[in-house]
Write a structure and sequence with these properties.
Helices cover about 20% and strands about 15% of the residues. The protein has about 180 residues and is α+β, with helices and mostly antiparallel strands. The protein is globular and about 40 Å long.
């Protein structure tokens, strides 16, 4: 389903991921919010999120605002800190570092990295998960078809935009298959 959303006005040159000092978190949030049917959940004590996730953003396709039943799996997230030893390979505790995570699916993952997502553990030594502005397999969820970029910039912003649009399209397709759309 690659390319499903390419060409939408949300990806016009005037709305691209750009910032004078590089892309910042709010740029990504604003870009994804422009996609149709997106609900953004910023984890915090008010929505019952675990404390470790507070401040992180989760993007769901839920155009009918069905709520929890439609929001089982985000299509993208922004993470701003390490999650203990479980997810520390990106060294997100560095000042100003954040990671955009995108569910591209296993087919796209293999096209991007040249190996199947379920076999990523065999290739994990090939990547520096703390490198900024580079498309990388997700350090924890690569086997499920997730990719990431730390502090997107000139090398990765355009590709990240396309991947976010494609992930949004995949999420919309899943939403329809699950029978939420009327």
């Amino acid at each position: 389903m690659a390319g499903v959303n390419r060409g939408l006005s949300v990806w016009s040159p005037t709305r691209r991921l750009r910032h004078p000092v590089g892309v910042i978190e709010t740029d990504v949030v604003q870009l994804v919010q422009r996609l149709p049917g997106v609900q953004v959940v910023r984890a915090g004590p008010d929505n019952g999120a675990p404390e470790i996730a507070w401040g992180d953003s989760f993007f769901f396709y839920d155009p009918d605002d069905v709520g929890e039943s439609a929001r089982r799996q985000p299509f993208a997230t922004i993470v701003t800190k390490d999650y203990g030893e479980f997810d520390a390979a990106s060294d997100l505790d560095r000042p100003g570092v954040f990671r955009v995570n995108v569910a591209v699916g296993r087919r796209a993952f293999e096209q991007l990295f040249g190996h199947p997502a379920p076999e990523h553990a065999e290739h994990s030594g090939d990547y520096d998960y703390a490198e900024l502005d580079r498309l990388l397999p997700h350090p924890v969820y690569a086997t499920q078809g997730w990719v990431c970029v730390l502090n997107p910039g000139t090398r990765s912003a355009s590709q990240l935009e396309s991947l976010l649009a494609d992930a949004h399209g995949l999420a919309a397709e899943r939403y329809r298959r699950r029978g939420f759309e009327t």
